[in-house]
Amino acid sequence: MENLKGFLNRKNIVISGKRYGIDALGAMAQGLFASLLIGTILNTLGTQLHIDALVNVGKYASSMSGPAMAIAIGYALQAPPLVLFSLAAVGQAANEMGGAGGPLAVLFVAIIAAEFGKAVSKETRVDILVTPIVTILVGCGVSWILAPTLGKIASSVGNIIMWATDLQPFLMGIIVSVVVGIALTLPISSAAICAALGLTGLAGGAAVAGCCAQMVGFAFLSFKENKWGGLVSQGIGTSMLQMGNIVKNPRIWAAPILTSAVTGPLATCVFKLRMDGAPVSSGMGTCGLVGQIGVYTGWINDIAAGTKTAITGMDWLGLILISFVLPAILTLLFGSFFRKIGWIKEGDLTL
Hints:
Blueprint lengths: L1 H9 L6 H33 L2 H12 L1 H12 L4 H18 L3 H19 L6 H39 L3 H17 L4 H8 L3 H21 L1 H13 L7 H6 L5 H17 L19 H16 L7 H28 L11
Helix pairs in contact: 2-3, 2-4, 4-5, 4-6, 5-6, 5-7, 6-7, 7-8, 7-9, 8-10, 8-13, 10-11, 10-13, 10-15, 13-15
């Protein structure tokens, strides 16, 4: 046992909740931000401004989300160069095999592959062959075993969403908004789930509301700690950046979740907010304003189809309130209460 502990220490393999659940998870969120989310923003800008070059760059960036997340995890685990570079292939495999649970699969698989790679690193005279081979084989092998199962677990969230869509608008608005919002912040793909379910209409509007409650909510809730950089990175990037902090203190999640439970039924019952654009937009929230553009695209399509006469002031009011104003105000109100009772402490939301 002492020999094993000595080996692990020498290899900088620290098996702990902090390193895997906070450091690695936080780094993974940054990898996702620097690939898929930046790509989505550039793609959206290019599409709206009719700049094909931006669209293509956005697609390239988005397609590299698996490798980016895996390399970020390896960096957090202080992996040596050959292990770090080999994780690109591991991340691609895990993300593809994981489907809707791709990010979750990358998290588990990249940790295992990185630690195995670190274990064999510089242990042989042919390190340049052994370390990449072990890292990639272990990573791809674990992906083949683990990733599809994690994908099914993530997709099972869709069963809750589809059950909720059969309920009357008030309850449907609450459940869909809360569940999709939580999925957006978790290391699973809310966009992939919504796309797979073909989630549009009022249910799509509730999903947009839930995602915005998480993204805009966390952006404003943590403004004291993260200032403008945090506002932008979470507000038009991803609330997944807070997952490391959520692991440390799950109670910081209460304010955005409660906000989504309010804005969801407001979207479905008061503003009749529909998302009739591409279903993937339902799970994107304010990331690159994809959710809002999806709603607008749906309006245009409905007018062209003759099912909607015009875009009204009430339409715009509902979209702005549900997407931006109410998530900011409500989350700050809930957050103020939770700070007073000690659920949220100084530094709990620092990225």
